[in-house]
Amino acid sequence: MSVTPTTVQDLVRHGKLWIDKSHNVRLHYVTAGSGNKVAVLVHGAPQTWYAWRHTIQPLVDAGYRLIMPDYRGAGGSSKPVSGYDKWTMAQDIHTLVHDHLEVREPITLVGHDIGMMVTQAYALRYRDEVASYIGMEAPVPGTSQYEEQKGSKELWHFNFHAARDVPEILTEGKERFYIKRFFDDRVQVLLATSARCIDGEVGGILKALEDDEDRQPAGA
């Protein structure tokens, strides 16, 4: 019999794991359920594990043990200056799943948006450890569609955000304006994917930033 919790926090457990102490890289992750089947859910950008909140209860009820990391650079995980190639990010998650949580059976692997690119690398690198794979909401690297999308003017922010120091310098003191304007231009995307939405407004990301600490356990 399924018990519906008051909030998603009643379902989940938070943890943090050192991936690379020499480079001060630590992953925040959330787990839920205790079923025999294991599913690893990797969020997109700009998101955290919380993007999966509406899927947690149904998957737990279906008998899954869920592992939902914040990949490096997102949410409660470390933000190092390097290591953002998808091969390395996949290795981060494998260290969490295989070495730390000691999952030995093949997993169901799910990736959304940028997380899909991370999970694709995971499935290629650790293919014998993946029972099934679901990728969504992003072009597949190595395809013609991916190459076409890379040059799209609508994706200008990828190169802008990737430039070292430039985004920080240009938006310093204007962070709230920049984030709000950025998502004003993408209101439908925000309403579909933000961690927290305010009724009738574009403000979910801003609200989520303010609430991040409230969602973390004490001392995490």
TrEMBL record:
Q: Which organism is it from?
A: Streptomyces griseoviridis
One term of GO molecular function: hydrolase activity
Q: Known Pfam families for this protein?
A: Abhydrolase_1
Please state what the protein is called.
Answer: AB hydrolase-1 domain-containing protein
Keyword line: Hydrolase
Record's signal peptide: none
What InterPro entries has UniProt attached to this entry? AB_hydrolase_1, AB_hydrolase_fold, Epox_hydrolase-like
Can you give the residue ranges of the AB hydrolase-1 domain?
Answer: 40-143
